[in-house]
From TrEMBL:
<feature type="transmembrane region" description="Helical">
    <location>
        <begin position="347"/>
        <end position="368"/>
    </location>
</feature>
<dbReference type="InterPro" id="IPR052524">
    <property type="entry name" value="MFS_Cyanate_Porter"/>
</dbReference>
<dbReference type="GO" id="GO:0005886">
    <property type="term" value="C:plasma membrane"/>
</dbReference>
<feature type="transmembrane region" description="Helical">
    <location>
        <begin position="380"/>
        <end position="397"/>
    </location>
</feature>
<feature type="transmembrane region" description="Helical">
    <location>
        <begin position="177"/>
        <end position="198"/>
    </location>
</feature>
<protein>
    <submittedName>
        <fullName>Inner membrane transport protein YeaN</fullName>
    </submittedName>
</protein>
<feature type="transmembrane region" description="Helical">
    <location>
        <begin position="88"/>
        <end position="106"/>
    </location>
</feature>
<dbReference type="Pfam" id="PF07690">
    <property type="entry name" value="MFS_1"/>
</dbReference>
<feature type="transmembrane region" description="Helical">
    <location>
        <begin position="289"/>
        <end position="307"/>
    </location>
</feature>
<feature type="transmembrane region" description="Helical">
    <location>
        <begin position="313"/>
        <end position="335"/>
    </location>
</feature>
<keyword id="KW-1133">Transmembrane helix</keyword>
<feature type="domain" description="Major facilitator superfamily (MFS) profile">
    <location>
        <begin position="20"/>
        <end position="402"/>
    </location>
</feature>
<feature type="transmembrane region" description="Helical">
    <location>
        <begin position="20"/>
        <end position="41"/>
    </location>
</feature>
<feature type="transmembrane region" description="Helical">
    <location>
        <begin position="223"/>
        <end position="246"/>
    </location>
</feature>
<dbReference type="InterPro" id="IPR020846">
    <property type="entry name" value="MFS_dom"/>
</dbReference>
<keyword id="KW-0472">Membrane</keyword>
<dbReference type="InterPro" id="IPR036259">
    <property type="entry name" value="MFS_trans_sf"/>
</dbReference>
Length: 405
């Protein structure tokens, strides 16, 4: 009996250790997934001067990753079934890290844009598969772990937004060092995922890899479309603000440093909202908290649109807290509507495809409107309309009855 209890305790200890290793890996990987995009915002004017870009062309450095995050989301679950989830994530992290590093040495527009393609592809593949990994490792704590995941995504965002401009201002190479330094989180993520890969080889084939059973894409499921549209709206707003909020406040007369701190405030508050809403939303029916977060986003952005030069830190904080909560909950919705890892991967792939294709229009639309009108006022009211659409969508985000279509 004592030997049996010792064996049970050993198994439990190993499971706990495995859970903590998985959590650390989730954090390190997710921190590495946003700096390759976010670092462009604070140094956009330096890149613009170096390559003589228009606002519309400059926006492509954020639009391209968004497009790839959408286009690669659907085929990624098939690739994971074919080659193994852990292996695919590892190679995608290598692609992201190398592309981030090489981009810093870009001698021309072609190299700059092609390495940005690599950044977007790496992020797309890893981001699609992380939801299924969380579903597998923590099936009963999906919302909490998704909150940790999105918090860590936002932590990487905040670090890149808050320090890239400072690095560029002090470095002799300007934007190049400030951009390339964000390959370092990728190195840590690669090390963490090598540990996960080695750990997975000790597990049974069922637990380490996704099921071979093919799951249909839920394109006939109305709930899947509503989730994808809501997710698209949150990310359109996020990337549009990341790309242009610093420039917008500089046009209002704020200095480069103050405008940078406004961007940093947005990313930090967004980050803090992620685990808060993940912890508060305990029911599978998350529509109440979705409505609260959407309403906060509406109010904050309307205040910015009406009084763009008044209390920017307060207004951007209201908007960021609402948007951060909406982002966490929208990432959890596909998991709420699925029962297996493979189903989660396919739903995530569908939602990310539709969502990021929508999101990719955000930075470009704002930049294009800025080129046409000469200021950002029209663009901000366009973004207000997107927040209102989010609020309208919330009643339609009730989970399915678990009989997946």
């Amino acid at each position: 009996m004592r030997k049996k209890n010792n064996e049970q305790n050993l198994v439990k200890t190993q499971e706990n250790n495995g859970a903590w290793i998985a959590i650390v890996a989730i954090i390190l990987v997710s921190v590495s997934l946003r700096p390759g995009i976010i670092s462009i915002g604070p140094i956009s004017t330096l890149i613009q001067d170096d390559f003589n870009f228009s606002y519309s062309t400059l926006s492509m450095l954020i639009t391209i990753p968004d497009l790839l995050m959408g286009l690669l989301a659907l085929p990624t679950p098939w690739i994971a079934r074919r080659y193994g989830r852990d292996t695919v994530i590892l190679y995608a992290l290598l692609l992201l890290t190398l592309s981030t590093l090489v981009r810093a040495f870009s001698p021309n527009t072609f190299t700059l844009l092609s390495t940005t393609v690599g950044v977007g592809a790496g992020i797309a593949i890893v981001g699609t598969l992380m939801g299924g990994f969380i579903k597998l490792k923590f099936p009963n704590k999906a919302a909490l772990l998704m909150g940790i995941y999105t918090f860590s995504l936002s932590l990487g965002t905040a670090l890149a937004a808050g320090t890239t401009g400072i690095i560029a201002s002090y470095a002799d190479s300007g934007w190049r060092l400030a951009s390339g330094i964000w390959a370092l989180p990728g190195v840590l993520a690669i090390i963490a995922w090598i540990v996960i890969t080695l750990q997975g080889r000790k597990d049974s084939p069922v637990s380490q890899e996704v099921s071979e059973r093919s799951v249909p894409i839920p394109y006939k499921n109305p709930t899947a479309w509503m989730i994808a549209l809501y997710f698209g709206c949150t990310n359109l707003l996020f990337y549009a603000i990341i790309a242009w909020v610093s420039s917008m406040y500089q046009e209002q007369g704020y200095s480069v440093s103050v405008a940078g701190f406004i961007l940093l405030t947005f990313t930090v508050v967004f980050m803090l909202a992620n685990p808060v809403f993940g912890a508060l939303s305990k029911s599978l029916d998350r529509r109440g908290w979705l409505a609260v977060s959407s309403l906060l986003a509406v109010v904050g952005l309307i205040l910015i649109a009406i009084w763009p030069d008044a209390s920017p830190f307060i207004f951007i904080s209201i908007f960021a807290f609402g948007l951060g909560g909406a982002f966490t909950l929208s990432m959890t919705l596909p998991l709420d509507n699925t029962n297996t890892v493979e189903e989660s991967n396919v739903w995530n792939g569908f939602v990310l495809t539709v969502g990021y294709l929508i999101a990719a229009t955000g930075p470009f639309s704002v930049g294009f409107m800025r080129d046409l009108s000469g200021d950002f006022s029209t663009s901000i009211w366009f973004l207000v309309g997107i927040t209102v659409l989010m609020l309208i969508l919330t009643p339609f985000l009730k989970p399915n009855d678990r009989s997946l279509q």
